[in-house]
Design brief:
Blueprint: H1 5-18, E1 26-29, E2 34-38, E3 41-44, H2 55-76, H3 82-114, E4 117-120, H4 126-154
Antiparallel strand pairs: 1-2, 1-4, 2-3
Helix pairs in contact: 1-2, 1-4, 2-3, 3-4
């Protein structure tokens, strides 16, 4: 299991997806306030009044952000069933695309409601890195499946 390259891709992709929760997505600065936007909400150093974020939007982002590493870790242990593993990695890849879209919509929503300048931070690239790693993992899983099929033909 661990000697397969797709296991490493899935593990590092899950770690990258989990790091999205640890770092701010963006910094916002207007004439009155400076605050950080995390996937789970706003962390402001000055108590910011006037911005209300729908709890459903944040809950959806948290759920999507938590599903990606969870499904990635589950797919690591499906190494005996490569077709199911490849399908699950494809699902995780598309969920990751949805997360990226929602993150940029979330940042745009906050930007419009605060009239602040946006400075993107490190966590915004973690979903992209994990998406690339999931793509590489799926490619490796399919490559393994083809190798096993060709070995079965030779028997």
């Amino acid at each position: 299991m661990i000697q397969r390259i797709q296991t490493l891709y899935l593990f590092i992709g899950a770690i990258a997806a989990g790091l999205t929760f640890a770092f701010p997505l963006a910094n916002f600065m207007n004439e009155l306030n400076l605050f950080d936007l995390y996937i789970y909400g706003i962390d402001d150093s000055t108590k910011m009044g006037g911005i209300e974020i729908n709890i459903g939007l944040i809950s959806g982002l948290i759920a999507i952000g938590a599903i990606i590493p969870l499904l990635s870790f589950i797919s690591i242990f499906l190494f005996k069933n490569r077709k199911t593993q490849a399908n699950l990695v494809r699902i995780v890849f598309f969920i990751n695309i949805v997360l990226i879209i929602f993150l940029f919509l979330f940042i745009d929503f906050v930007k419009k409601n605060t009239n602040a300048d946006v400075s993107y931070q490190l966590a915004i690239i973690f979903p992209l890195i994990s998406m690339i790693l999931f793509l590489l993992a799926r490619r490796s899983i399919i490559k393994d499946e083809k190798l096993i099929r060709s070995a079965n033909r030779l028997r």
